[in-house]
Amino acid sequence: MTYCVGIALEKGLVLMSDTRTNSGVDNISVFRKMFTWSVPGERIITVMTAGNLATTQAVISKLEERTKAPDERTNSLMDLPTMFQVAIETGKLLRETVRHTQETNGVRGKGRFTASIILAGQIKGMEPRLFMIYPEGNFIEASQDTPFFQIGETKYGRPIILRGYDRDMSFEDAVKLLMVSFDSTLKANLSVGLPLDLMVIGRDEFAPSHERRIEHGDPYFDAISRNWGEYLRTAFHSLPDYSFFQDYDPDSAGK
Amino acid sequence: MTYCVGIALEKGLVLMSDTRTNSGVDNISVFRKMFTWSVPGERIITVMTAGNLATTQAVISKLEERTKAPDERTNSLMDLPTMFQVAIETGKLLRETVRHTQETNGVRGKGRFTASIILAGQIKGMEPRLFMIYPEGNFIEASQDTPFFQIGETKYGRPIILRGYDRDMSFEDAVKLLMVSFDSTLKANLSVGLPLDLMVIGRDEFAPSHERRIEHGDPYFDAISRNWGEYLRTAFHSLPDYSFFQDYDPDSAGK
């Protein structure tokens, strides 16, 4: 499994992905699921992938035209005029890769060999944009109402994002929020694992504003993980107490 | 979908279930998923169900021998000597019901018509016990290491239980913890809905210690829901801040 989140802020985009892949619980590997291409000063595009690893690696390789000799490659992501067209092209490659593997294996219907993609980036003269691309190649775009996308093992880490997100928050707070969300997921699900990849794309910077791999033993992530348990318990104990014997009266509650 | 949780404490057992069933998003109903039988002073048994509603209702009806005339019924749950045997019997009825529906419909394999059950209770002279019963009829029992079970839509509400649970906590705190867990789930998933059913089974009481239906507009649940968002944000902002420019040093962290 996998966990990737992309969130859109007023200031730009923040993306985080884990790196664990597993085929069964006894075949665990570390693979990068976040890929960034940029033309400094002109565009930056980041893709995060979840699902069948052969499918997602094939899509990334095709985006980079690795079927051609190195000096003949032209990464079309670098030429397409809009993020919308980048999403169309990425979706098309994803759909074709999934279909091809399904057809050559005589598999029909959903599930096998599928993958999902979060696409984020900005091209000069346009807004930063965030898309979620489905295995069928179609896609949706983040909006004011739905300003973040998750793929993979999304549920454990969703409540804290729903509650903590604010479009005007700082990049630093957004990174903190994602770390809490990832920590909750890691605590509950073995198929999501460290290290994590982090990418911050500031509005109109057209280059990574901040990029980092969070490894096992990272002092900041460990502090978040340790403190969050304690602060959650404090928050929990600050909630009004339940009583078996009398109905709760919000007006008389001292807290 | 459904969300049910059963947790074992030193003091006894606390159980909570939602009541929403849906067949598609345009066919939503309220059905009780928690059922309790007791012989005051001798035994109390509570069952919570998730999965196919026809299956779970059939299992409950068979437990109560509703195929017989009312005066010929003997609820075997009231006679079986141990909770382990109650789990065997309940599992057998569940497996048979699932298999029968699958076979009469020509369906094989997992998924269709299945259900899961959380079984909790105490019989005099023995400890309070908590089981999770699978559609195949086999089951596992809660332990010191795994002191709670969830069925249905389990993931959204799991991180807070993992972090807030303490075997020695009061019943009131356990109810509060479950309300937070349900609130997180309700906020994220339409298929889980109010009202909620609550049952507290105190050790050696052999009768419900506390029993309640939490309806829409319940002042306590609303207070939990409202305050939890705020307290979560406070907890979040108390966490050490992330910095793009310097490594985190736990020793110099002022908080």
Task: Describe the protein's architecture and organization.
Chains A, B: It comes from Paraurantiacibacter namhicola. Chains A, B: It holds the Pfam family Proteasome. Chains A, B: InterPro entries: Ntn_hydrolases_N (IPR029055), Proteasome_sua/b (IPR001353), UCP009120_prtse (IPR016545). Two copies of one chain form a homodimer. Chain A has five helices and twelve strands. With 255 residues, chain A is α+β, with helices and mostly antiparallel strands. In chain A, the strands form three sheets. Chain A has a five-stranded antiparallel sheet, covered by helices on one side. The radius of gyration of chain A is 20 Å and the shape is globular. The model of chain A has no long low-confidence stretch (mean pLDDT 93). At the A-B interface, helix 3, helix 4 and helix 5 of A face helix 3, helix 4 and helix 5 of B.
Which key phrases capture this entry?
globular, Glutamine Phosphoribosylpyrophosphate, subunit 1, domain 1, about 260 residues, 5 helices, homodimer, five-stranded antiparallel sheet, alpha+beta, 12 strands
